[in-house]
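Morning run. Coffee first, then this:
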Amino acid sequence: MRICDLIEHRVAILGLGVEGQATIRALRRAGLSAPIVLLVEKPFALQDTWGEVRLCQGQEALSALAEVDLLIRSPGFAPSHPLRLEADRLGLLQTTATNLFLAEVRQAGLPVIGITGSKGKSTTSTLLYESLRAAGLPVQLLGNIGVAALDQLPEVLAGGMLTVLEMSSYQCADLLLGPSIALVLNLFPEHMDWHGSIEAYYQAKMRIGSPQLPGDTLRIDRRAVSWMQALRPVARAELIQDPAGYHFADGWFRRGEEPLFAGSAMRLPGLHNRENGCAVLAAAELVGVGAAVVQQVMGRFNGLPYRMSDLGVHGGVRWINDAISTAPEATVAALQAFLPQVATLIVGGKDRGYDYSPLLALLPDSAVRTLIVLPDSGSRVAAMMQQQQLAGCRVVEAADLSAAVAWAKRLTPKGWSCLFSPGAPSYNQFANFSERGQAFMSLVTAEQGGADGGS
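And here it is:
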């Protein structure tokens, strides 16, 4: 289904975030003049440029579904959401902004590199984008990275551009047409409250390859191999981190037996970044960009905000901001990247029942001597620490991030590092990881004093 196919429909849009608003603009550009029904959960300021719209909440939103014949869903609404359940019950035709974008660019014959994974997809997508741009290719970086694809669609089509499309599990879950090149990075459990189960989450991620066209390419990180059985076209998938292809081993980026360049050429810290760098090399090769260009970009790329960002030394302590960490596996990767340096670790956030035992198993081999835990998952981490009786590491329970940073300023020895890597979502105290990361940075750089680190 393309955007031009929607003009004769009575359209409702579920959600008015970045994608929902971009969808309104795309429909109006395409010539839809009829009123659009906007289904939201809270009041929203309408814009004059949207044309005639009707804002519906609560019971009115449920009732309004009976008056339309097409629903365009934003990614944040889970399959179990009442409005989605009602749309299913009514048998409404449904689609998403991601599906609309892919239909348009694929119809135009333009390449799309779709990248998904549990962690690292934003960094991987950005590294790939910068590499293709450095090679002189016309390229856009869109999707889950924060740039609505439909807003950039006119420019992509007019310029015959290649798209690097970061894709969340929400965006992959009901793809109707896949990207021409699909990359699946490492996977571990996340977003079970949205998907309903671990299996459904992995199925959603792996779906990126299911609706691809003949001749399209699928490459999957070998670390996700145990979940490949959920994907039908595994037989045609090539593996990243496989000794026969692009992989990182013995300190070198390699293609088969050929060493390409040393891992030290990559500015970002951590083994996981080097492993994801192999996905960049694999995708770049498919569009004619060689390893030398990727190496140059890796050498100057500092990383994205709130992703293991080095905030520098303040009060004699080096502070590392990994606020994007929303699962324990991400915290493990961050701690491994800075293993000999971190004396204080701050973890905790919205409790989704994640397993923190891999993190606790790493602590005895680390330099961490103070573990500061935040609500809500932090209390469970503290209980696990007490149960396992890990010696040499004190646990401090902080009421909020401000108190946690105050404790860290007091307890971290000068010359050592404090790592903030929550390993949990931010929604119990912050709107998103970006707001959480900004708050941490502000607290760290604030003048010493004020908060006393109270319980």
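The chain is about 35% helix and 20% strand. Good start to the day.
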